Amino acid sequence: MKTSTDPRHLKRREAIKVLFAQGFTKQASVPEIVKEILSKQKSIDKQIQKAAPTWPLNNLNQIDLSILRLAVYELESGKTPPKVIIDEAVELAKEYGSESSPSFVNGVLGTIFTG
To answer: Is the pLDDT of residue 73 over 90?
Structure first.
């Protein structure tokens, strides 16, 4: 059972915070996972845009976009079961996003996963 002190959850939280901050200004210290996400950002963003065509990336809530980028990266890596990745992304959206963030994140990731 995942808890808020689970090391994987804490690692994801840290990655989200850095990805979010990186959207505004270049960060001096970036964890390896964030470097990997940034190196694949164009490909990841294309998938997000395809799954949510009515929401241009520049109009998305920055925290939602950060959560989606991390989740899509993890889905591509294949190291973690997709349902776990989606559940974790929804939990992060509940923690950091707006009221509509969890359902938005769930819908976009569900479309990417089944697409």
So the answer is: yes
Distance CA 45, CA 42 (A): 5
Rg (CA), the chain: 13
- pTM assigned to the model: 0.93
| Coarse DSSP helix, strand, coil percentages of the chain, rounded to the nearest 5 percent | 70, 0, 30
Angle at 86 between CA 110 and CA 70, to 5 degrees: 105
User: How far, in Å, are 34, 57, 68, 99, 102 from residue 114 at the CA level?
Assistant: 25, 21, 15, 25, 18
Distance CA 40, CA 36 (A): 6
